[in-house]
Each structure stands twice: as structure tokens, then as C-alpha cells.
Write a structure and sequence with these properties.
homodimer; Rossmann fold; Dihydrodipicolinate Reductase, domain 2; Alpha-Beta Plaits
Chain lengths: ~450, ~450
């Protein structure tokens, strides 16, 4: 099919079935209706919704679905001869989303999904199935919502060896952190505000513990490094352990706290892959320090292009629909290829790097009892673990709950910090769990 | 050709000829050599340089070209049977670059170019020729260097109606402006520093007068709005008129000065297209305010995705080569389509919008003689033109060269500002040309 054939020989519409009509599904319906004409111009052919399927037909979704064929049984859209593309918006790593995805690809339909959990856990199997059936599998909306970062890395930065990829992959956490920044709020209060604004779920575990960001990071890592997607190798520390003082002290040190998912090849130690989500101190002259509210942002560092930075809305009906429909337009244009940029069998295995061997500067915060000898105990634990201290601040107790001690280390392996904090965390004089964050290296 | 055919049936190498081996050409050679294996994995086939051509064979380019066939005559690479892709890096809107581009496309070769001037002036003709010959025309490197912004807009944001596209499209100007910001330098001193650092040419006209940014803007506008590329409709004011006080006063107003190219549909007045390059005041809470040094950045605002922001290196051998080779990889993957996202005949004509009708707040700076009545003269000229003043600051003379008066207007049409400044510019009491800049609306 020539990409230029559109004007002389109009191509038939691309026929789409939507499975799972929640907030995002409603956005896709609205987008395909509102931008119908311009999409047809850009795609070289109309894109038509031919069927919709969801659990509850009678739920009010704020969009008129009556003009589309309703299928109670999702397998009916897979079996339908008039469906070219199945859009999976059910969610969840397994269950009916995965069943639908397998059935759709197995039937030779194109599959578009926003489901980061499913891609993180089953992306390789699905990509292999897509290859066998010679049909597209696309998932732009699964990472960083509306930001076309899958495309930017898969295609835009394709000429580069990527040194590392990292970013703010969870808007809920970023919203909470910027609330804490602006208002001096506690984590609990900022979380409550995020819940009130609809940025956080009633059960925020998935977001605030870094699980959602871990899913996205595993996908970015596979694309950047040409490695087999391996969600089991991604570790995550969330933001629950942060207190208002951490944000304040970070600011005093010229930094901001961001939940950063980072993947990097450990070239010095056998090329293992480091994939970790954790709060970090981001220097004020790094663009990630200026990403506000619920936005997402991704940085990719290439050996020729240097640092690329992408920012935009990471969630929400409109941005997610934008990414889903971009995938559909790529399919309509026949501009697509292997889901992970190369065939699954060409992806490298990537053993996990030793996260403890990772060298950097760290921020450490402890709350200690206000008594003689505690500072010596800290200094001793650090010395015994081989941690070299660059600076230390002890703030007088504000509310009687203990004294806050903040220190910044010289460059050293993370394992040394962990060893020191294991000792200090067990001390009777240290209140609660010590907090530590790496300082993002430029 | 199935996108998945690579592993079972290896595809033949894609054979590339490079025309014009300067800084960028050297970068492309180095990139294709350094990242050879990973490019072959990602592209599904090797990418091989089979011929190079430039004016002077014996110039030292810092890369070893001896392993490649040398052609003194550029038409020889067009005629060669073993060339699939011609990469044009000669530069210049016309002349041998354009001749080569026409011959290459006419011969059915794929054309990759970094030449913004040529695309801005002849992009439609070249795209039409590419369509006729059913061969790719790609130009990612022509806008914002290494940032994959052509792809991000053409494909990543393809589902959206774009309200406006704007950004920092010239790294030289941004370098000069950030020098002025940091050091309080004059334009002349900052320009000299940029020249010393290699960020500005000996004759900086092309950069500092906004011509280079205008070329890029015209390309972005065509892609965003589905309109016929029309460089003649782009107007440009450069940064020569800025003085140190402008940067300082902008900062005092909570803004930074950036040279912004912006394209926007004037929906209220017939849908004409506004395309203008000029220095603007960017609010401190807009990400463009934090783009430092010679970087570029582009913002696209979509009706579903919201604001997308892309930042990276806008020039230089490595970033430009990254974009050029990304285009080559797209061609190797058969993932490409019409150069301007749709066939040339499907692009709309777009009459120029009336720039004077554009409503916004403005910054105005005048240098006046320190004498009675001047302030009244300014206020009268503004009142007579219908310009409403929000704030006005008069700074005492620093060096005897006159008094600096800075005012910020309420929202109003640009034509009113122009009328007032025409009057004041002709006044005997106003020193030099008045400066005015729009304040970027969020």
C-alpha cells in the first residue's frame, strides 16, 4: 500500500471497536466525534467506531453511545468481521483485559491499549502474538498519558544509544509533592487534597507506592535498551515516608523532591539493567524540578542527541484518548512496526544490575531523640558503613516529636547508605524509619 | 512488506549517500559508524553509507571518509543504482541543495534533509514530487535539531486540533538572551560571547533577525494546521532591539524574554493563520521560561491532549545527526507517509491573519530625554491610540543616555500599540526605536 494513495483512491474507513467505556473510553468517543474530519484528513481515511462493549450497558457515561452497536460479550467484537482495531480500556494486568487482548491479536485484529499493567506483565507475550499474526500492537497511552514518549523513544531517538531514561511517571505523586512544596503540607494532608481533587484514588497504594510508575518504567526500559521487558526486576519505593521537613530541607539544599523512575545500564559492572522508582532530590537547574502538579515528564539521554525532555499531561480522559487515537491513526496510515521497536526474539535478556553498587550522593534524614550522644551514634554508623558525610544540619525540635537531622553524603555506593541506615533504623534513639534519597546526577 | 519479517527473512541493507559533508555530515558519518549495530537491530536491517559527495574532497573533516565511494558530481549519487536514500546536507534554500533534492526525488530516491530554508521555501513542491514518485521526503532535523518535534506533531499529536504551536526555535538567540539574563550584558556583548563560543556566525543576521526561526515556524504551522506551507506569510522581528534594561524589567515583572515563533489560527476572524517570530515576555510559570542556553523547545496545544512541551538541543553535529538518522531508520522500517502528514493537494490554503487584530497584553519600553512633558506625551499617544496602561515604571537615568520608561498595557489589539509607537518613535524626545513585546498568554 503506497502511503500516497489516499487522494486518488480513497481508502476504506478503519473500523474500531472500543472495549471498556469508563472515563478514558468516554474520552476516546468524544475525541473521535469532535475531531472526526481532521483525523480523516490526517489518517488518509475515516476512523469509525463500529462497536462498543463494556460491563454495564446502562451506566451513564456522559456520552451518547446509542449510535454504536453494543456488544455485551467482548468476544463478539473480536469475532466481528467488521472490526479492524480493538481498543482495550478495561484495565488490570490480567483478567478480562488480557483475555480480550489475546483473543483480539489471535484473531488478527490490531490491538491498541492504554493498559500499563498488562503491557508491563504480558507485553512480550502479546508482542510475540502480534508478530505471529502480523498485526499491530500499540500502547502509547500506557506511559505518560498524552505525551507521545513511546513514539519519541521508539522512533524519534532511535539513532541513539540511550545512556539512561528517567522521569516523573506518576501524576498523583507529583501532585502530592508539589502540594507539600507549596503549602508545607504533610504527606497525609497532601494526599487528602489529591483525593479531594480527583488526582488520587480512595486506595492510593498503586500510585503512592510507585507501582504504577514501575509499570511504565519497565516499558520505557525495554524500548530504550532493546531488552526484554521484566517488571519483576523493577523495584519501587514510594513517597509515603516523606515528611514536610524533607521537602523543606531539599529546597534549602537547592533541590526539589520528585518521584523518579529511572532505568540505566550498569556498564561498569557487566551491563546489567538498573530499574528503580524512588523519590529523588532533583537539582534546581534540571527541568524535572519545574514539572508542576499532576503533569508527567520523561528524559532520555542519547549518545548523539544529548538530553531530550518531554512534558505533558500524564493522565485524564483527554490526554489518554489523544494517545490512543494517535495509535489508531498510525495504524490507519500503515505506519507502525514491532511493538518494542524490534522483534521480540531480537530483544536482549538483561540481568538486573546490583542496585547497591550504584554510586551517587545521597540525602539522609533522621528523626532522633533530643539527647546526648545521638549525633555520635549517627556519625559512627556512617563511618562504620564507609559513608562519607559532606554536610549535616540539625534543626531544633519544632513540636517535641524529635530532632530532625539531615545529611548529604559524598559520592558512594547505595549499599553503604543502606548498611548505615539498617543500623540506625534499629536504634532506640531514632524515631521511625530513616529516609534516604539519591541526588539526581546531571 | 510485513513489519515483522526481519527475523525470519533478513532484509537487505538500506543504502545511503551523503551529500555535503560539513559539521552535520561528519556527525552523521560518526553516528552511523558508532551506533551501527543497534541501528541495524532497531531498523530491522543494516544502514550503510555507500557514497559521499561534497565540494572539496581534500578538506579535513575529522572523519575518515576513505572507506566510502567519493563522488565529485552530486548527480552521480542520484544516478547510482546502489543508492536508496540521498541525505542532503548542503544547505541554502536554492542552488545545489535544491537541484540535488529535485533530482533525487525525481529519480525515485528517498530524500532526507536538514535544510529548513529549502523546506520552508520549496517544501510543497518537493512533497508533491515525492508523492508523484511514491518516495519518502523527510526533514526531522530541519526543525529544533535533535528534538523529534516533527514526528511528535505529525504523529504523536495527530488526534488533536492544535490551537497554537510556538517555541524557542533558534538556539543562538536563546543563548544570547540567557547571557543577557545572567550577566546583565548588552546585546552586543552577548552576541560577541555567542560568536566566541561558536553559537553565532560572524554574520549573525540569519539567527538574530529571526529568519531561521521563521523557516522552522512555517514548517511547524503547515504540520499543525494542515495548511500549505507559506514562508512569505511569516513575519519576524529579531532581538537586536533589546537592551539590558528590557531583560531586567521583564525579570522584575516576573517574566523572561525569549524569542518565540508562534503560529495560531485566528478563529474569530475567518480562520486566517498568524505566523510571527518576535521576542516575547514569558511568564515564570511557563516551561519556556526555563529553557537555558542554546537549547530549543516547542509547545503544541491540542484540544484533547492539552499542552505538550518538548525540549532539547536545537543544533550541533550530534543532535542534528540524530534527527537525520531517525528519518533514515523510519525509511528502513517502511514507517513513513506523506511529508506534511497528508497529500499536498489535501492541505488547506491559509490566508494570513490580521496580526494587528491580535489581542493581548504588551510590554513597551522607551528611552526618553529627561525633561518636562515627556511622560505626558507618552500617555497622550497611548490614549489617542486607545492603549490602556496597566502599569508604568520610570527609572532614573543610569548613564546619562536617557530615562528608561517601561509600561505594561491592558489587553488590546497589537495595531493600537503600533499606532502609539509610530507616533512616539517620531518624537524628538524619544531616543532610538521604542521596543514592544507581547506577553505570552498561558
Amino acid at each position: 500500500m503506497s502511503p500516497y494513495s489516499a487522494p486518488t483512491a480513497p481508502r476504506p474507513p478503519l473500523r474500531v471497536a472500543l472495549a471498556g467505556i469508563g472515563v478514558v473510553g468516554g474520552g476516546v468517543v468524544r475525541l473521535l466525534e469532535a475531531n472526526r474530519e481532521l483525523i480523516a484528513r490526517r489518517a488518509g481515511r475515516p476512523i469509525e467506531i463500529v462497536a462498543v462493549s463494556a460491563r454495564d450497558r446502562h451506566k451513564d457515561r456522559g456520552v451518547d453511545l446509542s449510535r454504536y452497536r453494543w456488544e455485551d460479550d467482548m468476544d463478539a467484537i473480536v469475532a466481528a468481521d467488521d472490526v479492524d482495531v480493538v481498543v482495550e480500556m478495561i484495565g488490570g494486568a490480567d483478567g478480562s483485559a488480557l483475555t480480550l487482548a489475546r483473543h483480539a491479536l489471535g484473531a488478527g485484529k490490531a490491538l491498541v491499549t492504554a493498559n500499563k499493567a498488562m503491557i508491563a506483565h504480558h507485553g512480550l507475550d502479546l508482542a510475540r502474538l502480534a508478530e505471529q499474526k502480523d498485526t499491530p500492537l500499540k500502547y502509547e497511552a500506557a506511559v505518560a498519558g498524552g505525551i507521545p514518549v513511546i513514539k519519541a523513544i521508539r522512533e524519534g531517538a532511535s539513532a541513539n544509544e540511550i545512556a539512561r531514561v528517567y522521569g516523573i511517571l506518576n501524576g498523583t505523586c507529583n501532585y502530592i509533592l508539589t502540594q507539600m512544596e507549596r503549602n508545607g503540607a504533610s504527606f497525609a494532608d497532601a494526599l487528602a487534597a489529591a483525593q479531594a481533587e480527583g488526582y488520587a484514588e480512595a486506595d492510593p497504594t498503586f500510585d503512592v507506592d510507585g507501582i504504577d510508575a514501575a509499570h511504565k518504567l519497565s516499558i520505557l526500559a525495554a524500548l530504550c535498551f532493546g531488552t526484554q521487558l521484566d517488571i519483576g526486576a523493577v523495584t519501587a519505593d514510594g513517597i509515603r515516608g516523606l515528611i514536610a521537613a524533607d521537602i523543606r530541607e531539599a529546597e534549602a539544599l537547592g533541590h526539589r523532591v520528585r518521584l523518579i523512575g529511572m532505568a540505566e545500564r550498569d556498564r561498569e559492572n557487566g551491563g546489567g539493567l538498573y530499574q528503580h522508582v524512588q523519590p529523588c532530590l532533583v537539582p534546581a537547574d534540571h527541568p524535572l524540578a519545574y514539572v508542576p502538579g499532576a503533569l508527567n515528564a520523561v528524559v532520555a539521554e542519547g549518545n548523539f542527541v544529548g538530553r531530550l525532555f518531554f512534558e505533558g499531561a500524564g493522565a485524564g480522559a483527554g490526554p489518554t484518548a489523544s494517545a490512543i487515537v494517535a495509535d489508531i491513526i498510525d495504524i490507519a496510515r500503515d505506519e507502525y512496526g514491532p511493538a518494542f521497536a524490534m522483534p521480540v526474539d531480537a530483544l536482549d535478556a538483561a540481568p538486573a544490575a546490583d542496585a547497591g553498587a550504584r554510586v551517587g550522593k545521597h540525602y539522609v534524614r533522621l528523626i532522633v531523640e533530643d539527647r546526648i550522644g545521638v549525633l555520635a551514634e549517627i556519625a559512627t554508623a556512617m563511618r562504620d558503613a564507609g559513608v562519607s558525610i559532606e554536610s549535616l544540619i540539625q534543626r531544633g525540635s519544632e513540636d517535641g516529636d524529635g530532632v530532625v537531622i539531615v545529611l548529604v553524603t559524598h559520592e558512594g555506593p547505595a549499599s553503604a547508605i543502606h548498611a548505615a541506615l539498617d543500623v540506625l533504623g534499629a536504634s532506640d534513639h531514632v524515631v521511625g524509619a530513616p529516609m534516604h534519597m539519591p541526588i539526581l546526577a546531571l
